[in-house]
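pasting for ref. prot 1 ->
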Amino acid sequence: MSEILNKKTLVEVVAESCEITKKNAAVAVDTVFEEITKTLAEGGKVDIAGFGKFEISERPERMGINPATKEPLKIAASKTPKFKAAKALKEAVK
């Protein structure tokens, strides 16, 4: 199957699999995403056995070059979410 799994499709799959309404499935899916986001925003890590780990990666401040003007510029430090797939997930997609 080469289709894209988006939130709407995920809600439909959860509703059908759990035999619940799409409204309740949407609440469940939203809750999972909100908790992952909240945990990462607070500096925590999310470890879902058999799926993978979500954590925050910190990028230090660094110097870059504006490609249009070739002038050096300072790129501010930032944080970005990072995902590392679990062994079971890696094996499943081989």
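and prot 2 ->
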Amino acid sequence: MNWTILDSAHSLLRDATAALTAADLARPTPCSQWNVTQVLQHAAGDQLAYAASITGRGGPAENPFAPSGVLTGDPADLVEPALAASAAAFATVDPAGTTPTPLPQGALPAGTAAGAAALDAAVHAWDVAAAAGRPSPLGDDLAALLLPVARAIVEPLRGYGAYAPELTSDGTGGAAAELLRYLGRDPHWVSP
């Protein structure tokens, strides 16, 4: 099965990672506790967690919610295998069924699960690009597809510290800004 929403989000994270320089890796991110390296470790770990939930093997080597910030090698060497594992795992999922997830909600309808993995990849692509001072990779078309997924899964996750409280709209921006605010991110955030 080709999950277009997941493929699109994976491309965003892949491209945002490829654009990074060595100087970018220690920059602060919209995830106030983490730098770029830690966000990449978290994002890769999350994709591996989705893959492991589906396949029963190959989970993250470290806790995605306690990233070490120590990166040996190129950032793409961390991110690419995780994206490939996630895509391969989701390719085995029946779109009409349910599939296990690493989320507290457990098994979800397949489309929601793929959307949740896509949401994670896309928002962290935005985090990394924003931290590096690059334009947002998250477009309104993809954000409009991710927003219903976010509304379906995020509220219980806020209790686990996975997302900050929703920000009030300032009336600017399209679906991407709406999605970012819903996830507790300021769409106008710039690296200090």
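The beta strands are 98-99, 108-109.
The helical segments are 4-18, 36-55, 75-90, 110-131, 140-158, 175-182.
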